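Memo subject: From amino acid sequence to discrete backbone structure tokens
Keywords: amino acid chain, backbone geometry, structure tokens, three-dimensional fold.
Body of memo: The sequence and its backbone structure tokens, given next.
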Amino acid sequence: MGERTSGFWMRLAGLAGLMLVAACGDREREAETPVTETTVRAAQTEAAPVASPTLAAVKRRGRLQCGVNQGLVGFAYNDNRGQWRGFDVDFCRGLAAAIFGDPNAVRFVPLSAENRFQALTDERIDVLWRNTSWTMERDTGGHLAFAGINYYDGQGFLVRRSLNLNSATELNGARVCVQAGSTSALNAEDYFSSRGIEHRAVVLPTEEAARQAYGREDCDAFSADVSALAAARTTLADPQQHVILPDVISKEPLGPVTRRGDEQWTAIVRWTQNALILAEELGVTQANVEDRAKNAREPQVRRLLGAEGDFGPRLGLSKTWAADAVEGVGNYGEIFERNLGSQSPLDLARGMNAQWNARPGGLIYGLPVR
């Protein structure tokens, strides 16, 4: 009994020694291959992107299906030649350029506020780029994924100058036109009820119907996003006889929406939008993008435009995805000025939609490509 026990403990000690030697050898081998930023980056680059069923469907179809407003000057509308124009339209074209290298490889699907989300859920569109506010209810409802914010807005009031109003608090007893299926009616109700102001909501099925009702004087005020009010004013018979009151009663962060469950596609939409924002910050324009892609020395510009790294392939796109998007539609600032700013009938100031490092600064901030 004693001899067998002694032998057992000797064999156990020998086994423990072998395990210790093996562990030391493993530590020595690990020490021979130190973990550095280069090895981490190489491992990340080698990781294959998760396949996106939406991207696959878009490529099979040969074009992007983009949901837009039915007609909102500055954002999405048909010009007198029947061509789609606008801020949201240009972001759709930029996404098409990032995927196909062709900003025209897109079909625009006009949608009302009430049917926009169903069109996305039913896969009639690939992305919704229709002045849509990012709210908690929409974000946590289980079907939608917001890819980012490309315009910071707020709800206001359009009234006739002849009323001599200085504030929305003077709208006691007024008839206020709002659009169904949007956040406008709830925001107006919250604003007036919290101040004990009586009003009557006149709810119309579309933004155009609300605008026309206001034009017919079926209501005393039209309440919507300030950018939409600026667009509506340009369509009235005498725009100078209407004024947007200074009150801004809500926060309306607008941006593109995708279907939840296809994270890779949401990333493609997010980073294409971000590339257009970052291009403005880095001074990359539609006119100089080709030259900057070839000759830029700044690492952040070279990464953005595909001269360094494989950021496009990580999304399932080409290395020049961002350069293609900028070449197709210009950077964020160019898109803004052309459709909403000084080069447009709306003539809106950048305000909150200025770059974060502008003077004065705004809320537009490009995420780093690295």
About this structure: Residues 127 and 258 are 5 Å apart (CA to CA). The two ends are 68 Å apart (CA to CA). The chain has a mean pLDDT of 89. Residues 2-32 form the longest helix (31 residues).
